[in-house]
Amino acid sequence: VQLQASGGGLVQARGSLRLSCAASGRTLSTATMGWFRQAPGKEREFVAGINWSGVSTDYADSVKGRFTVSRDNAKNTVYLQMDSLKPEDTAVYYCAARYYSGIVYSRTEYHYWGQGTQVTVSS
Q: Which residues have CB under 8 Å from 40's CB, separation 6+?
């Protein structure tokens, strides 16, 4: 499966962005999906995850209540709605897929990755 992340950009603090992750080559309808981010000089970290049906989601504490992950299996696409953005949210955001059940936080458990999209939040 090939993943293509998009929707990043420059936004002011307290603004919003919606990231998309579109897949080709294989259906995402059986995949657990994750969003990760990596800031300069930092490790890539888990942001949000969603199970194959969309019923189960999970978030890093730093984004709970501000970010919402969702999916549209008919469109083979996963989304990350980011509201109330903060400068510390600035990072390259990646979507990732794993064809096993269960949302996991470790990036090594995800086998397919998108190329990343830059999100920059100005103060």
A: none
Query: What integer pLDDT is reported at residue 52 of this predicted model?
Result: 96
Rounded CA-CA distance 9/20 in Å is 12
Sort strands 117-122 and 9-12 into parallel, antiparallel or unpaired: parallel
Torsion of CA 6, 97, 39, 64, to 10 degrees: 90
- How far apart CA 20 and CA 114 sit, in angstroms, is 11
Give dist(CA 112, CA 96) in Å, integer. 5
4: left (phi over 0), alpha (psi -120 to 50) or beta: beta
In 3D space, the residue among 99, 100, 108 whose CA is nearest the CA of residue 36 turns out to be 108
| Ranges of residues in the chain whose predicted pLDDT is under 70 | none
pLDDT one-digit tens code per residue, 44-77: 999 999 999 999 999 999 999 999 999 999 999 9
Q: Are 58 and 93 in contact (CB under 8 A)?
A: no
Tokens of 74: 């008919």
**Rounded Cα distance, 115 and 80, in Å:** 15
Instruction: Provide the 8-state DSSP code for 74.
Output: G
